[in-house]
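Escalation from tier 1.

The customer reports that the assembly of two entities below gives different structure tokens on two consecutive runs. Tier 1 could not reproduce it. I'm attaching the input and our single run for tier 2 to review.
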Amino acid sequence: MPMPGVTRSRAAAVVALMLVAVALGACQAVDSFYPPAAVTRQGVATRDLYDIVFALAAIVFVVVEALIVYTVVRYRRRPTDIELPPQIHGNNLVEVVWTVIPTIIVGILFVLSWQVLNTVDARSAEPQQAYVRATAARFQWTFQYLDKDGKVLFESLAPELTVPAGENVHLTLQSKDVTHSFYVPQFLFKRDVIPGRENWFDFTIDPQDAGQTFRGQCAQLCGTYHASMIFSVKAVTPAEYDAFIAKGTADAQSTPAPSSATSPGASAGGPPASGVSGGPPIVVTAQNIVFTTQSIEAPANAPFTIQFENQDAGIPHNVVIHGGTSITDPPLFDGEIFSGADSRLYPIPALPAGTYLFSCKVHPNMTGTLTVK
Amino acid sequence: MATTALRPAVPVIRTGLYEWLTTTDHKKIGMMYVVNSFIFFFLGGLLALGVRSELAMPGIQFFKEAEYNQLFTMHASLMLFLFVIPMLAGFGNYVVPLQIGAPDMAFPRINALSFWMLPLGGVLMLSGFLTGSGAAANGWTSYSPLAQAKYSGIGTDLWVLAVLLIGTSSILGAINFLVTIFKMRAPGMTMFRLPIVTWTVLVTSVLVLLATPVLASALIMLFIDRNYGGHFFDPAVGGNAVLWQNIFWFYSHPAVYIMILPAMGIISEVLPVFSRKPLFGYKAFVFATAAIGALGFSVWAHHMFTTGAVYLPFFSLMTFLIAVPTGVKMFNWIATMWRGQLTFSTPMIFALGFLAEFLIGGINGAFSASVPVDFALHDTYWIVAHIHYVLFGGSVFGVFAGIYYWFPKMTGRMLNETLGKVHFVLMFVGTNLTFFPMHQLGLAGMPRRIADYSSTAGWTDLNLVATIGAFTIAFSMLPFLWNVFVSLRSGEIAGDDPWEANTLEWATTSPPPPYNFDHLPDIRSERPVFDLRHGLTGGHRLAPPPAPPTTPPSPTPSEPAPNVLVEA
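Tier 1 run:
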């Protein structure tokens, strides 16, 4: 049926719009076939290599699948096919050709990979500016900041690695128990953390990425709560990093034990008679790397006490109360980190009415809600 | 053996269940292998549905972390040790003696023994679920020190013993296959006339014989570590954690070829039959299979690039190189279909599914051969996508091609074509829905073997798609099971050779009698039954015109046909 011209052009416009929409969607889909944008100098080299491998792979995929589909459609048996097709047993020339061509392709890929490997997996030639040791244990990461000679300046129990952007970082990896793996997707890199062996790698974050935080996670199955072993890498400017190191070193020297929130008179059992809080302590329990107490309530504008029961033997936890409902909100209270099974009393200052998020500093995926009213 | 073969007929004195429990007939044992493997396939599939259900959404919904780790560990262990390897060994058991014109395997009672170890091993492994600390939960790779006694319970001991038992079964089976193939070929069945399935079983058996004892020794060392104060793999007491990885992968990488080569053999049997052409480049194919087997022993450390404890360029080069014989096979298969006359019965459709899926599994493996790219992708869902495109898209599609192809021979009845095609479409769609998004999840940074992920990680949608795909695969098994159930009772009678096939198993009745053949046709090429139907067609170069197609060859050829020598 002939279509009127107007309708046809309108239909063409609709089709064109649809094509644009499909193309936009396709762009997004294509992006998902690439790793995230690399933030380290080494990661950029890996990404460039990935792009080459992916392009070659895509070509091979399309050519071979097309060949399969073409063959299947073209050479289907037709009713007229009564005689046998030619019984071809082989052809030395084409067999040599299709052996040699893949050999050349993988040869090229091997050489390219080897070159990039020498960039990615090498002691950086630049002078070292930051030395950090990551220690993995079931199921948390801790970071020790070292001086040039490997002496520990201070340790951070929170799984946040602070590094200077634009400068070379030498990271050594140690395990206290089983094999873990230090993996930051945006580095396009991971390295196993193996007990009885000190692994290391060097990386340099792009100076433009100062101020950003990157998600990291253990990539090697390490036991029941493997999924809880998350950490983050915070890139700061070199000046901020120097200040961070100076402050951390000074804090470590002035206070022998982490004491941001010791509990006065807390070691004794039973209800505290300290008079600081109005009522009995509010119990928060952590077990199996979750707060089994998911939500607590407290009176507004009055100090109160949290009795924190850490029931995970050998695993450190604490309670951090944030100034809002997001884990990125600054802490109003940061309790002592201690290993279970044990308990502590945390004196909490008076808070205005509202909803607050509380979390564990060591395991950022452990959260609960504090309602003050 | 000799006296047995001379007996005119075996009187039927055993019936029913007793016969199945005591049989030493390779065909019955082969079918028991297949049925037993399917039972573990469905159990392993249920565990996979548990894994996918838990991952469909962020948060812990159905299984706690400890249970989740048991699910994926037992899923992989059942699928690899109790489904793929024994299933392919089962095909080998059924088909190899028939294809080489032998009355049975060389050691029929050892054959029965190696079968019966499998259900025993499976029950032993699964019994971990009944213990207080649950089944093994260290992943199927069971890395030490995680697999040491201080981190894992008695389920791991049961796992170690079960894998030892299954490994012993494999070793016995491999010896049996090798002796059978080397010593029991019918007159005229030279090595270069062996059907490709038999060739792949031969190479696989060599791999099993060389690799599995290494695994057995590693398992025994781990058992000593766990129970008798050994210090092999625990650095806390002076052992070496990387040593376990080296020994384990020295077995387990060749094991991947143990799990795929016979499936490639099945494809190489099905494609020529349904293209009405010989396999293109038979000898190249045999050499490629042998090359994969040999190179397979020099690539194990590509599973360990991120340990920082292996010499990277060497293993990278070898891993790239092993892609070449695999690529050669892909071209051989396509060239086999080229200028053929393709018909699309269910075995052929599954074989085509194999080509399409295995291609992806080969290509995404090349990414990991490139060490820096592997640093990014290792231990993420990309690797999960890779192994499933190889082992599900490859091996499982090959297994189903084999089931649909040999079911008429095994039972005497055809499977229903319509149900078979419904099965294929659902399974093909489900496979790609499940495993393709895992590439993207891996690139987006999702590690393997995590029970949970944050809703802010951006992995939710793709995980949901993968879960829907997994249930689609599960659903595709219903038409298959219904098909088997119905066809066993009322399927079309198959006859000796329903597919107009090439190899000797089609020269006897369906199902074959005990001891297989009353009379063997002449074996003058790798396609004796084809020759029987059409006359010889020669080798690389076209031979002189063969005998008229409808006349069967003379029963007593006094001299070899002149065109035999042309075969090259």
